[in-house]
Automatic annotation (TrEMBL):
Transmembrane segments: 6-30
One of the protein's GO biological processes: (1->3)-beta-D-glucan biosynthetic process
Ranges for domain Glycosyl transferase: 1-144
InterPro entries referenced in this protein's UniProt entry, alphabetically: Glyco_trans_48_dom (IPR003440)
Name recorded for this polypeptide: Putative 1,3-beta-glucan synthase 22
Gene Ontology terms, MF aspect: 1,3-beta-D-glucan synthase activity
Keywords: Membrane, Transmembrane, Transmembrane helix
Record's keyword annotation contains Membrane: yes
Cited PANTHER family: 1,3-BETA-GLUCAN SYNTHASE, LYST-INTERACTING PROTEIN LIP5 DOPAMINE RESPONSIVE PROTEIN DRG-1
Gene Ontology CC terms, in alphabetical order: 1,3-beta-D-glucan synthase complex; membrane
Organism: Triticum aestivum (Wheat)
């Protein structure tokens, strides 16, 4: 059953793995844009192509990542809250969270988790941590 396996994947390691992949993709995007800006290639493209007069294309290309990272990640939360509390309350909660910089906190929280998760995978930090309870599972009756 695919959905049961997907549920198992996301309740164990899948959430952190997918989060790590998203954060690494965002890093690749930001560093790619940074490289294009510093190398002069972006300036060369804008000067030597005929698309420089197309203001609509420039606006779409420059704001694409805002829509992808902002709207599409917040849309499921808004829909869920609108089903539970109503559309206006969902929009108000979303605006309140944006004013409290909840998205910035979430971004840095996921980045921190991804860093330590990746470091654990690369350097082998996963091991058994003793809790002091022992290994034997004893079966006792409910009446005891």
């Amino acid at each position: 059953d695919f959905f049961r396996m997907l549920s198992f994947f996301y309740t164990t390691i899948g959430f952190y793995f997918n989060t790590m992949m998203v954060v690494l993709t965002v890093y690749a995007f930001v560093w790619g844009r940074f490289y294009l800006a510093l190398s002069g290639l972006e300036e060369y493209i804008t000067k030597n192509t005929s698309t420089t007069n197309n203001a609509a294309l420039g606006a779409v290309l420059n704001q694409q990542f805002v829509i992808q990272l902002g709207l599409f990640t917040a849309l499921p939360m808004i829909i869920e809250n609108s089903l539970e509390h109503g559309f206006l309350n969902a929009v108000w909660d979303f605006l309140k969270m944006q004013l409290q910089f909840a998205s910035v906190f979430y971004t840095f929280s996921m980045g921190t988790k991804t860093h330590y998760y990746g470091r654990t995978i690369l350097h082998g930090g996963a091991k058994y941590r003793a809790t002091g309870r022992g290994f034997v599972v004893e079966h006792k009756k409910f009446a005891e």
